[in-house]
């Protein structure tokens, strides 16, 4: 990797904002650790402690350094030293710390890490965890680590990870491992991290979006609350009916469309369903395609069935608060909504996202913590053993028992027992097996180009301007940035 290319990556990544809410706040298995307050340079210098050996086959002990994922983090340090304090902490909160496969699990992060630790310990591999935060702080620290060629053996992230792969900064999965994953693992777990025929990352419990609805509000509008919506027109019509029935007290809703990754990740599924895209394979913008214009017109129609400004609010939490409080009836979001509906005493329906007239099922990964091995990692072989453990049967059974995310391992998710026991999560699993992508990385100044797109969508929804003209203008502005 030449210096110019890495410097370009630094500029791009430092400006990119990752969706922290999906990787942490909206994750039903979440146990957040305090963010690392060190500077990017300090974090990079402190990471990737040299191991005793990189040859796991020789039977010599190896210590790998792994960045924490908020959903399964139990602390920072040598993993086996963290179990007893974490168990004591959970018991002090009245949380059941026992688990038998096939039964519900309360102490999910504890067992997730215990299972991986046991599997790697048998191979003479020890694990040390570090916390670099999430979102923009994480991107900054990882980028500094790439520049210093000093990173943990496994890094983690969401929207930034495909870009790292495209820049040649990640180690491709070994061919036999990649073949095993393709044959046995849901595409949502790895397809967004596939580039030039190689796999560069895996998420053990990714999310994709589905359509949810508040049955109480839908019923008040005279709509059958048990009947799933199958078309965009039906979604728009039903949202309008709910808004009319609500008389200012509640609204139809639909999908969050704020000018940030929270919005792009959610209505990105609608873009894909309609055959549109944000960018081509070279990272050039494709904003003003006919498919995108049709999708933004749908968003405009749905915007009329929201309280003024809610659909494009800069803070996505405000939108989801309205859903939780029963102020909007329809919502496009990830699988955590199944449990959150129960927690908030909402009776919710769930179905695949409706299709446009000529559309086909498609989705965008959301809340997906992709784990990857950097090119300059010191213990690559041992690091890949950790990733193998992530999609092992024991870990995937644990995820299945959590009933907050669906397992990615086909031999668990496709059994009649799982389908009957976890019908909502099986519906989510089915959505993970279609045309699933991650958000693209633009060829240059990624965050600037995304902001051009986000501003254009907000303008389309909040004014009466011609959508095609607005997206044509956005396309020109984006090309001026990416083609300089």
From TrEMBL:
Q: Which Pfam families match?
A: SBP_bac_1
Record keywords: Transport included? yes
Q: Which residues form the signal peptide?
A: 1-23
Q: Which keywords accompany this UniProt record?
A: Signal, Transport
Q: Can the keyword Transport be found in this entry's annotation?
A: yes
Annotated region Disordered: where? 25-57
Assigned protein family: Belongs to the bacterial solute-binding protein 1 family.
Q: Which PANTHER family match?
A: MALTOSE-BINDING PERIPLASMIC PROTEIN, MALTOSE_MALTODEXTRIN-BINDING PERIPLASMIC PROTEIN
Q: What is this protein called?
A: ABC transporter substrate-binding protein
Q: Which organism is it from?
A: Paenibacillus glycanilyticus
Taxonomic lineage of the native organism: Bacteria, Bacillati, Bacillota, Bacilli, Bacillales
